[in-house]
Design goal:
Elements: E1 15-16, H1 34-45, E2 52-57, E3 68-72, E4 75-81, E5 87-91, E6 105-107, E7 110-112, E8 119-120, E9 133-135, E10 139-143, H2 145-148, E11 167-176, H3 180-187, H4 193-196, E12 201-208, E13 218-227, E14 230-242, E15 245-253, E16 259-266, E17 277-286, H5 292-297, H6 299-328
Antiparallel strand pairs: 1-14, 2-10, 3-4, 4-5, 6-7, 7-8, 9-10, 11-17, 12-13, 13-14, 14-15, 15-16, 16-17
Helix pairs in contact: 3-6
The chain binds FE2/S2 (inorganic) cluster and fe (ii) ion (FE2).
């Protein structure tokens, strides 16, 4: 008889969990002390970003004739990808007479203004100065020194992700009427999980809150609800590697090393009475399971599902962030 004892035992990824009564879960408000969340936000805000801002999914910017227009911190920018795959970025206002460069065309890798044909190959020209841009393979980042106001860094602070080729990634974007800090504060309150999102989370407990200094992670035990009574129990860590990013990394359980990166990019300028912020969320799911190779092959079909799941959570989380902003801006925020 073959000895199979040395082989890891196959464990089903899904557990059955009777749907608990929402109202009978343990309240988390006493643990979710506003001071702990405020301190975590302060720690994140003090970290350097090097003036890099996430502007969207790398996959969405294709080497075709359409450039992308974005507004970051009230500044109009244009991005395009040349035939070689290189991404260019710069002011979105044509230096000639101000045409919106997002409506121009890319011809053989060169951006051609549709008003009078001024051509930009990505290098400084006629008063137009390019912005440093970084394509990390999942997300695009642009460095805007005037908006960031920090010491510039050569590269953005990109979270460590599952090894390339070992994950299925999807990027979800939404816009809220709030500032980046409201989005970050929402993510630094893990206690709201199974109360506010009972359709996605059950049995959430915060095993450890940040203790200050380098010990800045929230460690959370939670079950993700897949469907009905089927859940996937995991341990996850939340950290904020820079002021506008919160990373949730699964550290134990199904899909360990998978991450969800939430990036908050201000669309409006400082002091704008009606701020708007883009939430750009990158989900990079990984698994050692054999079936996951199939999932990778099915990635184009999986992406919309992953985006839909993120979208449902963010409908509620943006309501939280927008509410936080509404209260803060009128001096009604508790505490
Ligand atoms: S406004 Fe762009 S070329 Fe004239
Ligand atoms: Fe949430």
């Amino acid at each position: 008889m073959t000895d199979r004892s040395h082989k890891p035992r196959w464990t089903p990824p899904l557990r059955r969990r009777r749907t608990p009564d929402w109202a009978t879960q343990t309240p988390t408000w006493q643990d979710a002390r506003p001071g702990v969340i405020a301190d975590a936000l302060k720690t994140a805000s003090a970290r350097p970003s090097g003036n890099w801002f996430v502007v969207g999914a790398s996959r969405d910017l294709r080497a075709d004739e359409r450039p992308h227009g974005r507004t970051v911190g009230g500044v109009e920018i244009v991005l395009w990808r040349s035939d070689t795959g290189l991404v260019h970025a710069g002011p979105g206002v044509c230096p000639h007479l101000g045409a919106p460069l997002r409506d121009s065309r890319v011809v053989c890798g060169t951006l051609v203004c549709h008003w009078h044909g001024l051509a930009l190959d990505g290098a400084a020209f006629a008063g137009w100065e390019p912005y440093p841009v970084h394509d990390d393979g999942v997300l695009l980042w642009v460095r805007l020194d005037e908006i960031g106001g920090e010491e510039p860094l050569d590269m953005p602070v990109v979270p460590v992700r599952p090894a390339t080729g070992n994950g299925v990634d999807a990027v979800f974007t939404a816009v809220g009427r709030c500032e980046p800090q409201d989005v970050v504060a929402n993510r630094l309150d893990p206690w709201h999980g199974s109360w506010f999102h009972p359709y996605s989370f059950v049995d959430l407990t915060v095993a450890r809150a940040p203790r200050g200094g380098v010990d800045d992670a929230f460690v959370v035990d939670v079950s993700f609800r897949v469907t009905g009574a089927l859940v996937v129990p995991v341990r996850a860590e939340f950290t904020a590697p820079e002021p506008r990013t919160v990373v949730m990394r699964i550290t134990e359980g199904e899909g360990a090393t998978s991450i969800v990166e939430t990036h908050a990019t201000p669309l409006t300028g400082e002091g704008d009475g009606q701020p708007r912020t883009a939430v750009v969320e990158a989900i990079v799911a990984a698994s050692d399971r054999r079936g996951f190779a199939l999932a990778r092959a099915a990635a184009p079909a999986l992406r919309p599902l992953m985006r839909r799941a993120a979208g449902r959570l963010w409908r509620d989380d943006l309501a939280y962030a927008e509410r936080r902003w509404a209260l803060r801006s009128t001096g009604r925020f508790p505490g």
